Amino acid sequence: MKVAVTGARGFIGRHVLGELARRDVEVIATERPDVVRERPAEANVRWIALDMARPPENPFVALANPDVLLHLAWNGLPNYRSLHHFESELPRQYGFLSNVIRGGLPALVTAGTCFEYGRQSGALAANLETRPTNPYGFAKDVLRKQLQYLKAVHPYKLTWARLFYMYGDDQPATSLFAALKAAVAAGHSEFPMSGGEQLRDYLPVSEVARRLVDLAINPGDPGPINLCSGQPVSVRRLVEGWIGQNGWKIQAKYGELPYPDYEPMAFWGDSADARR
């Protein structure tokens, strides 16, 4: 089996490549031509240079005719409010993916986001009406609908895996886990944060990668699904757990930062459709 991976150098992508290295598959990983970095040493990975803004005439052939595309690439994060997401990124994403599908791609597994649900609270089912309230969530939601309409003209298998929150090594510096690790490394005794009472759905990125690879290796046609734990956890409990598990000598200082205004206080994936 041949699996192509876009966004292979990203936070999730690097863990996905590590998981694919343990599977009996051939992997085609993409990287932007202008990015020069050391490549991971996985034996089953072949790297190709590909720029979605200037794609080849037949991107399916350029990707070596994969059986499935695991699509993780998305530029402009973590600024969820940037208009870039629907002004530039959305047409670029659809143009690239539609050309790959028209070229003959049998199956697509792509990363969605819990921000498609907007400010709806509680347990969020995969079939819940989407109500995005920031440009990133809006752009992802529109892309999903475009890809679903495309199926009627060019049939293919689509899995839209909505990601919730995750943590792990190599996470961007703006994330909670990475910021806490940096504060510990800097020798800080306190870690300023919000009140920590918000409830979220978290998974380690290694588990997210495992589930994405499972979906890619056994592609179905479920449309949107939740890739989540199905279990709400308070941010306060999560941070205190990280501190305790790692034996870090730092104390969370609650109430120093405001709660994010682009998400509700309590939401998580519905356990009935939490893909495991």
CATH class of the largest domain: Alpha Beta
Number of helices: 7
CATH topology of the largest domain: Rossmann fold
Mean pLDDT: 93
Q: What fraction of the residues are assigned to beta strands by DSSP?
A: 15-25%
The tally of beta strands, per DSSP, is 15
The structure class reads alpha/beta
Distinctive features:
seven-stranded parallel β-sheet, Rossmann fold, 276 residues, two-stranded parallel ribbon, alpha/beta, globular, 2 domains
Structure description:
This protein has helices spanning 11-20, 59-62, 84-102, 135-151, 176-185, 205-217, 235-246, and strands at 2-6, 26-31, 45-49, 68-71, 107-113, 122-124, 157-163, 165-167, 190-192, 199-200, 202-204, 223-227, 233-234, 251-253, 267-269. The two termini are 22 Å apart. 31% of the residues lie in helices and 22% in strands. The chain is globular, with a radius of gyration of 19 Å. The protein has 2 domains: 2-165 and 202-227, Rossmann fold (3-Layer(aba) Sandwich); 173-200 and 233-264, no CATH class. Helix 1 packs across helix 6. The model has no long low-confidence stretch (mean pLDDT 93). It has 7 helices and 15 strands. It has a 7-stranded parallel beta sheet with strand order 3-2-1-4-5-7-12, sandwiched between helices. It is an alpha/beta fold.
